[in-house]
Amino acid sequence: MVSNERSNKKNNIKRVVAIIRPQKLSDVKDALAEIGCDGMNVNEVKGRGRQLGIKERYRGSSYCVDLLPKTRIEIIVNEKDLDKIIKTIVDSAKTDEIGDGKIFVSSVEEVIRVRTGETGETAI
Q: Do residues 76 and 37 lie in contact, with contact meaning Cβ atoms separated by under 8 Å?
């Protein structure tokens, strides 16, 4: 149940989802740690965008791998840190080639720390 106090607050919490090349994960993690961003969730995913996969040859046959391995990083941040985090991800994940990935930003309605019951920005 959401209290009136929480539902009336202006929301300054954002979710950053970055889809990057798997080989850039350690660079991105290290760069984020340098700016004080330690909390994140990381998943191995498959997907495609403009790259549209790659063509391979195996035993004389040609085939297309259209879903490529990618890494998905999800970070919940205060809005005041958003630009710094996005810049850090872009700078550390960029190779200047098709397939570098994308970053999506959305609002988060509420954050609740399970251990303490803290809510909002203090729970991040």
A: no
